[in-house]
Model the fold of this input.
Amino acid sequence: MDKKDFIELNDQNLNLDFMGLSDERADEMIQELKKQPYKIIISDDDVEIHKMTKLVLKGFQMEGVGLQFIDAYSEKETIELLKKNPDTAIILLDVVMEDNDSGLRVVRFMRDEMKNNLTRIILRTGQPGVAPEERIIADYEIDDYKSKAELTVQKLISTIYVCLRAHKNIKALDRHKEGLHRVINASHDLFKYHSFTEFLNGMLQQVIALYDVEIDSFYVRDEKFSMSGMAFIKIMDSAQVLAGTGKYEKLIGQTLELQSCSPHLRKLIERFEQSDESELVIREGSYLGIYKQNMDKLVKNYIVLEADISNDNIELIKLFLTNFSLAIDNFILNMNANETQKEIIFRLGEVVENRCDSTANHLKRVSKITACLAEKLGFNQDMIQAMSLASVMHDVGKIGITDAILLKPAKLDKEEFENIKLHTTIGYNIFKDSKLPVLNLAAQIALNHHERFDGMGYPGGKKGEETPKEAQIVAVADVFDALLSKRCYKEKWKFEDAISYLEKERGKQFAPEVVDAFMKNIGEIYEIIGSLPDEND
Done:
């Protein structure tokens, strides 16, 4: 029975009520529940061997953990039970069952097909001459090989102890190997996330993946000074849960009322608050808490795990947290840099748009519509974000066009139109030599967003797929929103008229694939436009 079956979680806080028991007794019961018995498969065609084995090992315990016996009476049955119980600790395996080598075929299946190197094997035989001990031990990974006649009560008990310790040690080594592999690779994996909450939840998932048990966990970050774009709550009487797994997932974004927590959890967090140590590991009942303080001593990173974790595992978590304390700071610095870049780009775009008697909301709508269409057309998340930002700069080249042309309230003459066409190449030249990928993309969008699918656009007269897909998308987003906006030279169109224009120009001005994606998601686009009205609407 899982621990979560006993714990009642209030949606607003961590009011842990363990069936009305005292907190200390609750923790004792939780620990008892976690002590799952070691599985022992007894594979033998002799029913009496099963009875005698279980009688001898009745009441056996190692470190407070007992045994669970699973009976198999044939090679076929043994193999099926191994498939169902890959976590078997030991198999007591008769060599001779249906055939003289039935047990050896089971061993081959375990080691070669199941790739199970964790289960320890004790071979037993009533006919030792059939399979010589030296060959068996040499050819197969066997822990012990005994004649049933010589396997006395004391020898059997001693052998079980030795094999269980071997099973436990191999399991720990495998877990540590996997854990170290995750620690080394997880930094790279976590930077695929695009929000701080996703990043932190990814971090917790990486931590709990080090273990083969379910862990409820949460993350709290305490800052004495707030950071741009982020809202952190100081841990005094309460704290905000920024990430969580298991039952704590419900609390993401909510206030964690410390006075409503269990005594052990409250004591753990209070001890963190009172400590001047730069790194601290604390156990309280079933909780394990770790905090790592940054070098500037202004930020504390907390991880609280609710699980039965060994001292060896704590070292892995400490190593993991040391890595991710730095990764968290780098992630925030990267986010701040991205926000700064985004702010500068939007400000520059606004300067250009405001010269055209427009509003910045046109740029915001184009940005959001571009992201929407890019997602529907299968671009990855990184490219969607880059396109959303680069689209803001599609008309940056208008900075080189005179007000007399930009603000003319009438139709442009031929010479004026040729002049305004230059904004595409001006915008391209502004960004083409940038080493920033988003500005390189902005250069391509600025250059190509007035190309037409039929080849009648400018400046290059590109046709069909010669125009980059990113520019095709921005072209649709820009024209559609421009039609719905009032400009010095025109009134705003009705929504249905703008839709009709897109349909009419499908395959002519606009790429059919982009128009189709637009039409399939017109409801979402309508909401984007409605959420960002112009000042004069």
Summary: The two ends are 61 Å apart (CA to CA).
